[in-house]
């Protein structure tokens, strides 16, 4: 998959990198990818498709009604592979290749997803108006950029619900998060939008605990050195 560079998305990403809302902060990622596979993506795609087909022979009923569609269909398998590869590209320090269809959910439609996102990011508009100073509101700028890149009218929307330790979404202090994939089959393109809301208090407590743990290790090391000297 190939990262697609768009100036409106870059502006929004810069803003969403750290939005200070007093007692909590919001961090977001918004990136678009072409679904054209090359290099290592092709190899991973072949491996994933083979594993899905092998699983299908064991449990055909479960896989026939997967969130991405019946996995007996090549198009459904490709959709699953694109979702997994997008996460791998977004978070290269993690491996999402073990995910399967049940880790994802197909949303009811763009309108419902948009309402959820608008409700979650309503307060960020005040920071946008103050720091960016654009006459266009944050939500207007957000959806205008998303529509320009992905053409929402032709999109299916999927979400990823984290349920294991091997991903970046289980951080301490998380209040809420969302991970949406806007997939346009006609354009062969995916736009991924993720946001996390974190409690400053919880983050400060976690940081303090980490510092105390490091200090204790230093003290233990100092005592051990003293013992060795004696």
Give the SSE layout:
Layout: E1 2-4, H1 7-16, E2 19-20, E3 24-34, H2 40-58, H3 60-64, H4 74-90, E4 104-106, H5 110-120, H6 124-131, H7 138-150, E5 155-160, E6 174-184, E7 189-199, H8 200-229
Antiparallel strand pairs: 1-3, 2-3, 3-7, 4-5, 5-6, 6-7
Protein described:
It is a single chain. With 230 residues, the chain is α+β, with helices and mostly antiparallel strands. The protein has a single domain (2-201), classed as Repressor of RNA polymerase III transcription  Maf1 (Protein Transport Mog1p, Chain A, 3-Layer(aba) Sandwich). It contains 8 helices and 7 strands. The protein has helices at 7-16, 40-58, 60-64, 74-90, 110-120, 124-131, 138-150, 200-229; strands at residues 2-4, 19-20, 24-34, 104-106, 155-160, 174-184, 189-199. Strands 1, 2, 3, 4, 5, 6 and 7 form a 7-stranded antiparallel beta sheet that branches. The longest helix has 30 residues, at 200-229. The model has no long low-confidence stretch (mean pLDDT 84). Belongs to the MAF1 family. This is Repressor of RNA polymerase III transcription. Keywords: Nucleus, Repressor, Transcription, Transcription regulation.
